[in-house]
Amino acid sequence: MISVLRKRLRREDGFSVIELSVAMILSSLIAASLMTVFYSFSSNSGDLTAKSNVQADARAVISEQVVEIRQAIRADLNADAVESLSEGKLAFYTQNYVTAEIERVVYERKDCVGDECELWVYKYALESFDGIVSTFEATPYESSFLMGHILLDQPMFVGIVLEGDPLAVVETSACDGGSVPCDFPVVSITLRARPHPTTGGASTPVELHEEVRIRSA
User: What pTM was computed for the model?
Assistant: First the structure.
């Protein structure tokens, strides 16, 4: 059919209705194929960009957490460096590298919609220290949004300690520093986030995991 059309182009007697119809059908098929290839390429490119962006954000967030948790210190003489821990919240004490003052830091997974949440960090300044107990301001001097689309399907924070003979890993999923002490030397962080927009492979969550040893523990 293509050869017939080419021959007809060299002549001046025009095309028949059937020939024009076939030409239009062939053109439509070729255009549809090109659009499919273009859409597939665009979607894959968008997926890779979305996943790359969320990986970069997650690495930055978890790097910040690792540095601060590693430097956690005791704010009270008889307390632990970690104040409290739950699946989506971690409160601990550290030293501000600018003021050299002790401060309270809280990482919290909150404002959840469906299975996705936001991750925030709050920092509280020291109000007073009587030589035994530290008191912190009730209002944070810094409230920062760190990342969105954090998944709820796994605990973000877990305390880890080695106990027994032979040694075995014992995990603490929740502690309050009171009835349940937070005396573990290692904090496990699991950060899972879903790239957005979610098309094709971009819906696969990105997961980063770190185990941080508290230097003062």
Answer: 0.76
